[in-house]
Amino acid sequence: MSGAPDPRALARKARFLRWALNLYPPYLGAGIRVRQISADFRSVRVKMGLSWYNRNYVRTQFGGSLYSMTDPFFMLMLMENLGRDYIVWDKAASIDFVAPGKGPVYADFQIDEALLETVRARTAGGEKYLPELLVEVRDGAGGLVATVHKTLYVRLKPQVRN
Q1: What pTM was computed for the model?
Q2: Can you give the pLDDT of all 162 residues of the chain as single tens digits?
Q3: Which of 33, 108, 35 shows the shortest CA–CA distance to 74?
Q4: Which residues face 156 on adjacent strands?
Q5: Of 127, 39, 32, 29, whose CA–CA distance to 70 is shortest?
Q6: Can you tell me the distance from the alpha carbon of 76 to that of 96, in angstroms, rounded to the nearest whole number?
Q7: CA-CA-CA-CA torsion for 88, 13, 46, 153, nearest 10 degrees?
Q8: What 3-state DSSP class applies to 47?
C-alpha cells in the first residue's frame, strides 16, 4: 500500500516522539519518562518514579498515573507500523491493580510482525478489527504492579478500501 512507512523516517520520528513525550506536561507532572522507543516503533519502555506529586494517600503510586503511563503507546506503535492508510484509535481499556507501586515502575510494550499481519488480514476488506493487547507494569525488582488491557479500533481509511 502507498502508506507503508519508511524505516529511516520512522527512526527520526521515534527519536522526536520520545523527546516530545518527555516534555508533555501531563507526563512531566506525573513523573513519567519515555526511556526508549525503538527505531521501528515495535518496542517502547516507559518509567515512572515515585514522588510527592504522583503518590496517593497511602504513599504508593497513584492509580491514574499508572494507567496514564500506558495510555497512548500501543495506538502510536500500530499507527506508525501500519502507515497512513489505517485509522487506529484506542477503544477501551481496563487496569487490574495487583500490588502497590512503592518505587519506580516500568512498562515494556512490544508488537510483532504476526500482530501486524493479523491486523492487515482482518481489515483487508474494509472491516474494523479490535485487537486486544496487554502490558504489565512492574517494579524495579520485576514484581507485577498492574496489568493493563487495551482494545484498539483499526480499519482501512475509506479511500483505500476495496
Answers
A1: 0.91
A2: 455 667 788 789 999 999 999 999 999 989 999 999 999 999 999 999 999 888 899 999 999 999 999 999 999 999 999 999 999 999 999 999 999 999 999 999 999 999 999 999 999 999 999 999 999 999 999 999 999 999 999 999 988 886
A3: 108
A4: 86
A5: 32
A6: 22
A7: 0
A8: strand
